[in-house]
Amino acid sequence: xxxxxxxxxxxxxxxxxxxxxxxxxxxxxxxxxxxxxxxxxxxxxxxxxxxxxxxxxxxxxxxxxxxxxxxxxxxxxxxxxxxxxxxxxxxxxxxxxxxxxxxxxxxxxxxxxxxxxxxxxxxxxxxxxxxxxxxxxxxxxxxxxxxxxxxxxxxxxxxxxxxxxxxxxxxxxxxxxxxxxxxxxxxxxxxxxxxxxxxxxxxxxxxxxxxxxxxxxxxxxxxxxxxxxxxxxxxxxxxxxxxxxxxxxxxxxxxxxxxxxxxxxxxxxxxxxxxxxxxxxxxxxxxxxxxxx
Length: 293
What we know:
The protein has 293 residues and is mostly beta strands. It has helices spanning 73-90, 95-104, 113-116, 123-127; strands at 19-22, 37-38, 44-46, 51-54, 58-61, 67-70, 131-133, 138-143, 148-156, 162-167, 171-172, 181-184, 188-190, 196-204, 211-223, 226-238, 241-245, 256-262, 268-274, 278-282, 288-292. Strands 8, 10, 11, 13, 15 and 16 form a six-stranded mixed sheet that branches. A four-stranded antiparallel sheet has the order 7-9-14-12. The chain has a three-stranded antiparallel sheet with strand order 19-18-21, with no helix packed on it. Strand 18 (256-262) and strand 19 (268-274) form a beta hairpin. It is globular, with a radius of gyration of 23 Å.
């Protein structure tokens, strides 16, 4: 508990609403596990937790009478379950809509996405949501120098006049250092005459960038003079690159064609020509054979 990549079952299930714990000061609880979660092959599979709720020093009813105070994510999760029950008493939401309003209206407590998810539960904001999202986490997978896009849909609960779109810079939880490009294709959408809109977030990872990165897409919805900012986490893994140099027997760099093959299958993965004797090739994340001619 407490470290990155420590969320286990059942919280690492993709469709689970995973809840971390905050304390009375709205800080992350020291015992609260952090993401990301991983597939068996080691690739990043999910931005977890989804959100936080109070989980330290929570007073609850005790078996056979009385009360006791406990701390843990097991004390945080019932806050979210209770919030869901209260909302469903008044709102006719399906599972996807309920997940969206609970998660995207959470309060930012200034932690990274793999620590706080979308933020700390805010029941009032969740109840008063004016929009919901079909996707509450944007997962880009491995991203290189070519831009990668991820689209999701914003739908009205109440009439909304305008949407304003922005994104926080991603935090790198690994040792790699880089400044990726992240931004929406459009920064403003007029919602007059619409009930929903598709928005697109673009990510690109520059040369010599590495690590697991995550940030938050922010969508501000204006409705009848009321402005609400919704938070949708995103994550990606920066593709790493290796530099291949080709030289003659005297050590002079030479023009060459460099090929990278899958070591187990012999299939050509990438081919590049260099006029300077040096070329960068994307690390495929597997054992390879490199040849030059």
